[in-house]
Amino acid sequence: MEVDRSESENVAVEVNAKPVANQGAGDAESSHSDRLRRKNKKYARSNSKEEGVTTVTPLPKYRSWKNSRRPRNGHGRGLPKKGGAGGKGVWGAPGSELLEEFVEDANDPNYDSEAVSNGDVEFKQVIVETDPEEVVRKCEPVILEYFEHGDTNAAAEDFLEFVTPKRSHLVCEMIVEIALDHKPSHCEMASVLISDLYGRVFTAKDIGYAFERLLDKLPDLVLDTPEAVVMLSNFIARCVADDCLPPKFIQTQSSATLNAPAKQAILRADTLLSMKQGLVRLDNIWGVGGGIRPVKSLIRQIQLLLKEYLTSGDLAEATRCVKDLEVPHFHHELVYETVVLAMESINSGAEEQLATFLAELRRSVIVTPDQMDRGFLRVLEDMTDIVLDVPLAYIMLDRFMERCQTKFRLGEEVLKKAPSRGRKRYVSEGDGGAIKDHALKLRE
Description:
With 444 residues, the protein is mainly alpha-helical. Helix content is 56%, strand content 3%. A two-stranded antiparallel sheet has the order 1-2. α12 runs antiparallel to α13. The longest helix is centred in the N-terminal third of the chain and has 18 residues.
């Protein structure tokens, strides 16, 4: 039969114990019998369900139990009573010290009447308002950094670190002011930022108050940004279209007393919103900037830019238009179209003007040397197709490259791949020795 150890218990079994025959013996024999009984007493583990089977297992000596809390009767697991909370001179249950309520006694020599724990001190939340100048100073780097990475969540977390509800209108005001000095693509990012911060950093009331302040400062903003009236009206109309500003704002400002530029901005914003499908068009009010535009659209704008430059001769305006394209990775197409236009014009004045244009782009590092060389190499690769439309393309290309070489330095790879058969063909058509001498000079 298996021994069920889970129901076993410790009992004391007497081994070799002599029965006491005479209960009336003397005290000496009784005490001697008790000593023998204690001496021959062994502890054993037995199962109450078993009958006649006893397994004797010696337990530790009594001396090792001296300081033990285990019960002497062999029952229990040896744990302290009541989880350590019972008995005299014990620490109590773990964590019980946190539940005790400490009451200070006024008669205590260490009693402090001004202590915080006396209940006489009342705590209130006090929000320290930041100075407006400090908020403006901290907002500017956050907005400029947002124009670089475009992450509205990161910008919102940065604003929440120092902006309080009473100063939140300054955030919207600074976003618009800084965007006025940047590109249309940055204005689009500013509109998106205002829309994403609405309800998180500032409310519609804060946005309205910010635009009221901007309308009051509009005469001063026009001095730095001549197009501030148009741009501010675009921002107001875009906020209304994005449901960040109620349409009632424009009606309220129309009936208010405003300065002349502010009235013009409000009137233009009202016109934008009242147009047919105006809310849909306002999504692209800042245009589609950068590389988002289709390639064909970019090429068309570059061609119009060059033709306008040949007509007006305004080099500064042409340079500004190139910057507004915001496609530095596509400037090789600008160089390509410029060289092709110079060959098609067959006009020394137009060639000189276009060479000056490329030289200015190269000098101001708007077009990098890599993009410049790449544009010329593309022209050299397509010469077999270009010559079908422009029979004199080879000699015109040589003449234009010479003009460009005098104004700025072309790459070595471009000079190596420049064709030489065009000069022979041009001379074979009987144009005289002057052209031949000119070709010899180019070879030298």
